[in-house]
Amino acid sequence: MYPEIFYSNTFTLLAEAEVGKHFYWNIAGFLVHGQVLAVMWFVILVLLIFSLLGTLNADRIPHDFQNFMEASVDFVTDIARDQLGESFYKEWIPFIGTLFFFIFGSNWAGAVIPWKLIELPEGELAAPTNDINTTVALALLTSFAYFYAGLSKKGLGYFKRYIEPLPLLLPINILEDFTKPLSLSFRLFGNVLADELTITVLTSLVPLVIPLPIMLLGVFAGSVQALIFSTLAAAYIAEALE
User: Fold this and answer.
1) How many CB atoms lie within 10 A of CB 36?
2) Angstrom distance (rounded) from CA 84 to CA 234
3) Using an 8 Å Cβ cutoff, are 90 and 76 in contact?
4) For 10-69, what is each residue's pLDDT tens digit?
């Protein structure tokens, strides 16, 4: 294939790629993104099944799937312990663990499952984290969590942090609380969206051969993004508890 033809086809595919196109469900007067909600509940269902299998007939000495699930819980426990310390990590394991497993499952659902084989009247099935609304919601939950952590420990004295060490830093400290959820949401959304667009274009241009390594890289990147998001969430909560 001549280079000019290759680049022409690439630009054509990029121009035709649609981002953010959804079909909607009307639930109690609210419009929701149908495909995002469907894949999200699929991920939650898979996580629930894994949890049930891991706790069914649990023994003091782990075996089979119980051993795998306990190793997974130990992994998120280490994330919470490393960031929050021995004094606070236990009460935040459920929140940090839920963030990690949901983002991990969502990213893998987009990278591993061939959703594009399921044709929809409008839009297409993809990872829930491929939608900016999902990542913003996760980032806002993290913001609420670290505000709750700070207020529950220090009361209204938590807001003294905005004028420390100097009152002149008040605007910067306030701005910091806005940039945290923005960076969390756009980092996750941008990485997942870029990976899926890359795979879509490469699959259209060179089927079967070239996309496979990119898909494996997407699986790895999705795992890393789940780790980064949950680690940063734990770090923000630890900062509020200092």
Assistant:
1) 22
2) 7
3) no
4) 434 433 444 556 667 777 777 777 778 888 899 999 999 988 887 777 777 777 777 888
The total number of structural domains in the chain stands at 1
Residue 64 is part of which domain span? 23-241
How far apart CA 207 and CA 201 sit, in angstroms, is 10
Query: CB atoms < 10 A from the CB of 91, how many?
Result: 12
How long a stretch of residues is the chain?
Answer: 242
Asked whether residue 10 is assigned to any structural domain, the reply reads no
Could you tell me the two tokens for 172?
């910067």
Q: Where are the alpha helices (DSSP H) in the chain?
A: 3-16, 34-55, 64-84, 89-112, 132-154, 170-205, 211-241
What distance in Å separates the CA atoms of residue 47 and residue 42, rounded to the nearest whole number?
9
In a domain, 7, yes or no: no
pLDDT in tens, 83-135: 888 888 888 899 999 999 999 998 888 777 776 667 766 667 778 888 888 89
0.85 exceeded by the pTM?
no
N-terminal to C-terminal alpha carbon distance within the chain: 60
Q: Return the SS3 of 187.
A: helix
Strands 24-27 and 30-33: antiparallel
Please give the Cα distance from 177 to 155 (Å, whole number). Answer: 18
Contacts of 5 (CB under 8 A, 6+ apart): none
Query: Can you list the pairs that 150-155 forms with residues at least 24 positions away whose Cβ atoms lie under 8 Å?
Result: 150/240, 150/241, 153/240, 153/241
Token pair of 233, please? 């969430």
* Residue 18 lies inside a defined structural domain of this protein: no
Is 1 inside any structural domain? no
